Amino acid sequence: MADEVISKLKKQMQKSSDNLKVELGKIRAGRANASLVNDIMVDYYGAPTPLQQIASVSIPEARLIQITPFDKTALKSIETAINMSDLGINPTIDGNVIRLVVPQLTGESRKDIVKEVKKTAEEAKIAIRNARRDAMDTLKKSEKDGEISEDIMHKKEKDVQKIHDEFIKIIDDISSNKEKEISKI
């Protein structure tokens, strides 16, 4: 029982840290990153289709995203989808490819983005703390119901806290790396 609680806790915390990586990958840091276009849905023959399914995305330069559709007739649809997204970058059609030039960040926009990174990291920490609280409550309930002994409960509570501390450090490392990437000129 107690080992199941620990296993479930690790999965929840890993999911939170993975989700943070995905969310921070979507944040524009003045450099080209293929994850910036991951959420773009293109109206392809009347069906909303993820961009990656109808085009290849490459990064030929530090501030350039190049999108090459597998079907050349999809160029206009891709351009429209990019314009309608909240990406904030104007696409340029160049022959059979679409180029997105990621603009250089200003000092003010860097500060705003760093605030957004910190907010997103704090949300991940809250999810981890909630997972810890739920695990602790489950252990206390199991001890109260006589399913585990008091000694095992105290040992598992220490394990829960140790896992919590490890994942909080992981969250801090992920967010500080993203902040450094944003602050780098």
TrEMBL record:
Coiled-coil ranges per UniProt: 114-141
Gene3D superfamilies the UniProt entry points to: 3.30.1360.40, Ribosome-recycling factor (1.10.132.20)
Domain Ribosome recycling factor: 20-182
Matching CDD domains: RRF
GO cellular component: cytoplasm
Cell compartment(s), UniProt: Cytoplasm
Molecular function as annotated in GO: ribosomal large subunit binding
Domain of life: Bacteria
Cytoplasm found in the keyword field: yes
Keywords, ordered alphabetically: Coiled coil, Cytoplasm, Protein biosynthesis
GO biological process: translational termination
InterPro entries the UniProt entry points to: Ribosome_recyc_fac, Ribosome_recyc_fac_dom, RRF_sf
NCBIfam families: frr (TIGR00496)
Record function comment: Responsible for the release of ribosomes from messenger RNA at the termination of protein biosynthesis. May increase the efficiency of translation by recycling ribosomes from one round of translation to another.
Entry's family note: Belongs to the RRF family.
Name recorded for this polypeptide: Ribosome-recycling factor
